[in-house]
Design goal:
The chain is built from 9 helices and 13 strands. By secondary structure, the protein is of the alpha/beta class.
């Protein structure tokens, strides 16, 4: 079970009397919408569960991508954010351990000489990726020889690849599986270059709130809640429950 909800915890996680949960809406495995536009998904259900345990209402603050969410930390727009944990974002955000992991890999043309993950990071290879996605940040920090080009989002990245100017399209495996069906003559490179770790976090300087959030995330994994939400939303093909911290 999570720790007790103390006055300090409430003051840091719900300073306005409401839990303002910042949600990245670019990750279709964690967020979606009902036909009427109502948001749903694993991340939203976790946010509402956190609010329930705190005993306060939950308001979802939507962001179009994780970069915008991370950049707004400290601006008073949200109290808990749900997004990929990356070192570049940890400058502004104190993250919990991950609650789910998502495989990231590459899509290439059938005729491509690139066969393994390690083949991609070579001189002369060009890769297109959503720049502010967690896996985009990982590639920016880890690719040594390949040329990396960042674009706005996954749709733009796929279109740029289709235009024929890039050797590889980097993305979440589940999204790329769909892209292979839409882009004739393409295939996925087996394996993964990273496991994107989706976590929750607080803006820097909220020690009591961060400690409570970390305990909450561990409890949701251990209790089976995260696994239940993955099954409920039908995203077991793309998400796995992260191991205990």
């Amino acid at each position: 079970m999570t720790a007790a909800v103390t006055p300090d915890v409430l003051a840091e996680l719900a300073p306005t009397g409401t839990l303002r949960a910042g949600i990245n809406f670019s990750n279709f495995l964690l967020t979606a919408r009902e036909p009427d536009g109502t948001p749903k998904g694993v991340a939203l259900d976790l946010a509402h569960e956190l609010g329930r345990r705190l005993g306060v209402p939950t308001v979802i603050v939507e962001f179009p991508n994780p970069g915008k969410l991370a950049e707004s930390a400290g601006k008073g727009l949200w109290d808990v954010g749900f997004l990929g944990a990356e070192p570049a974002r940890a400058v502004l955000i104190d993250f919990s351990a991950p609650y789910v992991e998502i495989e990231a890999t590459y899509l290439v043309r059938d005729s491509s000489p690139l066969r393994a993950i390690a083949d991609v990071d070579r001189d002369g290879v060009s890769v297109v990726v959503p720049a502010k996605a967690a896996y985009g940040l990982w590639l920016a920090a880890n690719l040594r020889q390949a040329k990396l080009t960042g674009v706005d989002n996954a749709d733009t990245a796929a279109q740029r690849f289709v235009d024929g100017t890039f050797d590889a399209l980097a993305g979440l495996k589940d999204r790329l599986v769909q892209d292979v069906k839409k882009i004739p003559g393409t295939r996925l490179i087996p394996g993964q270059f990273a496991a994107v770790q989706q976590a929750a976090g607080t803006p820097k300087g909220r020690a009591a709130g961060h400690a409570y959030l970390c305990a909450f995330i561990e409890d949701t994994k251990a209790s089976g809640l995260v696994a239940h939400l993955i099954e409920k939303h039908g995203v077991g093909h793309g998400l796995t429950v992260a191991p205990p911290a």
